[in-house]
Design a protein that fits this description.
The chain has helices at about 1-30, 35-55, 60-90, 95-100, 140-155, 180-185, 190-205; strands at about 110-115, 120-125, 130-135, 160-165. The protein has seven helices and four strands; from the N terminus they run ααααβββαβαα. It starts with a helix and ends in a 29-residue tail after the last helix. About 25% of the residues are buried. α1 crosses α3. InterPro entries: DUF4191 (IPR025445).
Amino acid sequence: MARKETAAESANAGRLKQIALTYKMTRRADKKIGLVLAAVGIITFGVFLAIGFLIGHPIYLGILGLLVALLATAIVFGRRAERAAFGQMEGQPGAAAAVLDNIGRGWSTTPAVAMNRNQDVVHRAVGKAGIVLVAEGNPNRVKSLLVAEKRKMSRIVADVPVHDIIVGNGEGQVPLKKLRTTMMKLPRVLTGPQVTTTNDRLRALGDLMKNMPLPKGPMPKGMKLPRGSKGR
């Protein structure tokens, strides 16, 4: 019993430390985060408490308001922390690879399947939507990389749909913060076994990571990209 309590205490301490670290990292990019969170909590609690006095149950509504206030504060904090993380990552080499690495179950990602001397790079993700090539770098240069990669893959996976995405804020591009959402909206056309077969075929092509180093970042130290909440 004592061991279980110690383990639970250690886990809670670890969570609190992570929350504190995430808050510090978020505050560097979002100076108003403290005021915003305080306002959300106080206003939410105040509304419920006021309703409680109006209907004659201030204690019950006060307790409920406290719980809802904590939940609302946590949701707002999560979203602003996510926005801050994307803000720090955007425009840095490897940012799209970091997002793909956290895209979730059902996807198999391979960073840097193609790259040029200017460090424009193409990453590959395989899932039930087929193959998705995600390019980051100069829009004009990455187009030739995408064409070359499609041509190379067509020899062994001609029957699998291939989508290409260029990460950026220009016309026809997908902003980094919307990359995961965009990919999750693609129509599912492959079964699980077909995804596995496609991955097996593509492994024969290899990738640049076996021959040259590429930073997986650029995630801010101590900052983790929230799962399942991107691109809201």
